[in-house]
Amino acid sequence: MQQQRTERVQIETARHRITGDVTLAAEGFRSRISDLLNASERDFLALTDVELAPLDGGAVVRRPFVAVGRRHIVYVAPVDEG
């Protein structure tokens, strides 16, 4: 049985729209995005396979990994890839 899964999310900060994969538990505790955001022991959200798009219209940058400070997050939403 797989213990973890990835979910594609979009995060917006004051300056960027960031799309990437977060790792969540397959089920139960910490299996929701809200669980990850509310984990008080974490100051950063780790994302992989990331696209960074400046809100001012600059070029999109791709990175294999980005850590986003929780206090800079305006919103997080799952990306529907269906």
Task: Name its key features.
single chain; 82 residues; mainly beta; SH3 type barrels; 5-stranded antiparallel β-sheet; 1 helix; 5 strands; 6% helix
Question: Strands, helices and their partners?
Answer:
Blueprint: E1 4-12, E2 16-25, H1 33-37, E3 44-54, E4 61-69, E5 75-78
Antiparallel strand pairs: 1-2, 1-5, 2-3, 3-4
Summarize the structure.
By secondary structure, the protein is mainly beta. It has a single domain, classed as SH3 type barrels (Roll).
Structure report:
- The protein has 82 residues and is mostly beta strands.
- Strands 4-3-2-1-5 form a 5-stranded antiparallel β-sheet.
- A hairpin with a 6-residue loop joins strand 3 and strand 4.
- The model has no long low-confidence stretch (mean pLDDT 91).
Helix content: under 10%
The largest sheet is: 5 strands, antiparallel
Structural class: mainly beta
H/E topology pattern: EEHEEE
Annotation field: number of helices:
1
Mean pLDDT figure: 91
The third-level CATH topology is: SH3 type barrels
Cα-atom Rg, whole angstroms?
A: 13 Å
Q: Would you count the extended β strands for me?
A: 5
CATH class (first level) name:
Mainly Beta
Please name the CATH architecture: Roll
Spatial order of strands in the largest sheet? 4-3-2-1-5
Low-confidence parts? none
The backbone outline, from C-alpha atoms, is globular
What's the domain count? 1
